[in-house]
Write a structure and sequence with these properties.
The protein is built from ten helices and eleven strands. By secondary structure, the chain is of the alpha/beta class.
């Protein structure tokens, strides 16, 4: 299998430098197309130098910030090989990641396949992150919220209603389905939108737990979609989710269990605001109080 890897990026130079070696080590990778989406942190200069010495890495410059769907589609159009792996600028591949996906794509008849996608704090080792996520339980896909526990070890290959966002498929499929430009700011749901659009065409989505990749979680990350945070981020998560639910309303009604879409979006909004806006400062305050109490007891 010959694969073009597509990586959209914006202002995440250090992350990009960290993950590229894992992709270059994959035998199936024949090119890496980095789409620079308005970076001002030295990414262009780094890629310009790297592309002069590498036959694999090349880059496209959007010149200004055009967003993830535009950047993904531009990379898709520029890809030269039969298969595309849609990557991220913080995604590290394990050894033989793409080779394993290719084998399991063939054995399962998958049209689109993903690996086990673990979100890994930057200071955590690969072994520790696997051990931690091995303990995850519950459903792999929550049919009531249309969300997925991407790091869970599901044991065997499974056809799935949605999959993790780093995906392998034929370039022709990517060019036919494409990423929708209706999502904005943090572009939440753009990958799930792609997957439901593929399923509407009759394509088979498969999750493969035998190939592992890691999305690094960096502290104080303000690059890419992380440029918006706090209340602004949650506002656009909710708005984009509403656009997604409306676009695929009939398909979601037939294939998921969200109930009334207006009730669903209200519940979703409340949970997001509580978990990501209200809880974090309370937890920080309680942690400070606990540390003070422990210090006093130590004295």
């Amino acid at each position: 299998m010959e694969v073009s890897v597509i990586i959209p990026t914006k202002d995440r130079l250090a992350s990009l430098q960290r993950i590229l070696p894992s992709m270059l080590a994959q035998d199936e990778v024949k090119e890496i197309v980095v789409v620079v989406d308005g970076s001002t942190d030295g990414t262009l200069e780094y890629l310009d130098e790297l592309s002069r010495t590498s036959d694999v890495v090349r880059y496209l410059d959007n010149e200004k910030n055009r967003g993830l769907p535009f950047s993904r589609n531009r990379g898709i159009d520029a890809a030269r090989f039969e298969y595309i792996f849609m990557a991220e600028d913080d995604l590290e591949m394990s050894d033989n990641f793409l080779g394993t996906l290719a084998d399991h794509m063939a054995s399962t008849g998958a049209d689109v396949i993903c690996g086990r996608n673990i979100f890994r704090p930057e200071t955590e080792s690969a072994a520790a992150s696997i051990s931690r996520t091995d303990k995850l339980t519950g459903p792999y896909v929550n049919m009531k919220t249309i969300e997925i526990e991407t790091g869970m070890d599901i044991g065997v290959d499974q056809e799935s209603p949605i999959i993790a966002s780093p995906m392998l498929a034929k370039a022709a499929l990517f060019r036919e389905v494409r990423y929708s430009n209706i999502y904005e700011v943090n572009f939440w749901r753009e990958e799930t939108d792609f997957q439901l659009s593929a399923r509407k065409r009759g394509n088979k989505l498969v999750s493969c737990p035998h190939a592992i990749c890691f999305n690094f979680v960096f502290s104080n990350d303000r690059g890419g979609v992380h440029a918006s945070d706090g209340l602004r981020r949650e506002k656009w998560v909710i708005k984009n989710n509403w656009r997604f639910v409306n676009k695929h309303a009939a398909f979601i009604k037939d294939n998921f269990d969200i109930g009334n879409k207006r009730v669903y979006i209200v519940k979703f909004s409340v949970v997001r605001i509580v978990n990501y806006i209200l809880k974090p400062p309370v937890i920080r305050v309680l942690s400070k109080v606990k540390r003070r109490v422990l210090r006093k007891r130590a004295v």
